[in-house]
Task: structure prediction
Amino acid sequence: MTDIVVLVSGGGTNLQAIIDAIESGTITNARVKAVISNKEDAYALERAKKHGIKGKVAKKAELLSAIKEEGPDLLVLAGFLVVLPEEIIREYENRIINIHPSLIPSFCGQGFYGLRVHEGVLSRGCKVTGATVHFVDEGTDTGPIIIQKAVEVLPGDTPEVLQKRVMEEAEWKILPKAIDLFSNGKLVVKEGKVEVLS
Amino acid sequence: MTDIVVLVSGGGTNLQAIIDAIESGTITNARVKAVISNKEDAYALERAKKHGIKGKVAKKAELLSAIKEEGPDLLVLAGFLVVLPEEIIREYENRIINIHPSLIPSFCGQGFYGLRVHEGVLSRGCKVTGATVHFVDEGTDTGPIIIQKAVEVLPGDTPEVLQKRVMEEAEWKILPKAIDLFSNGKLVVKEGKVEVLS
Result:
């Protein structure tokens, strides 16, 4: 059984997708041990509570110890807007998963988070965007890519409308899928690339 | 009727896709007036001949006059490895279409052409790539995007295998589609972005 700690800063819709996938059996062999937020009022903590999952609040300095207390096998960043301390990244190498709302290497790196990603896509006039689940390394969105899924940009899209479509059509599908693969030992990292075992 | 001049340097598989789409009626309201190659031995010239299309050879310095002689409404770069002179780009603003074998802005710009694009995709470990048809401006792959199509990267892909899949699943579909839209007056460029009229 893979014990997951989910790190969040906001509403927690990706956390909800994970919880739903575990309850429906889309993710097997895993459970959410705790949800840790850097913000007391993150709605994600409410979601955790509703499903009987422990919720914790931790500032950056307390983060490592708050995580270690739970002894997780996997950390999932689900809209976590704090840059992870390097010691956490080293301690949990290839055991931290992040979701980014674009097709990396497009519209990623410093400054590209939340709506800014979708503003970038629309401002370049792209017709296809998507989302990426990747392992976290010391860089910003530079870690090994696990899954990507493309999403169409449609005429009249605003950043908000596009954000919602990318969540619904990509993020809420590939994040649970990646967790399921991890939990069942299907992900192998070799030379900075992810091999998905069948 | 839209008169097209196709510029090529090599085998001309994208030229073939255009010819086939015109013959099958996938592209309406357009014909290939001439094929111009910078190389005498480009197989694309053979393809043109087989279909009764005029073939010409022109070096960079003669290119503008060779094009002007044909009086085209649209220039299509179909694997043309010469940087277009600026005067051509200005003369045919928003009337030059290029196909690039990635999802711009990923893996584009100087140095990214042919197999190098696919090597870049595999070396980053991307799981999704694709192709982009765009209007040509003064930059390298910076012009307004007309259509993009995503293509899956699969386990075991080599650059050659991936190149072939991107051609078959994306390039040979979206290039004819873009030409058909152009020929039927469906493409409007506003503030560097392409609006596709329905």
Remarks:
- Chain B touches chain A through 24 residues (CB under 8 Å).
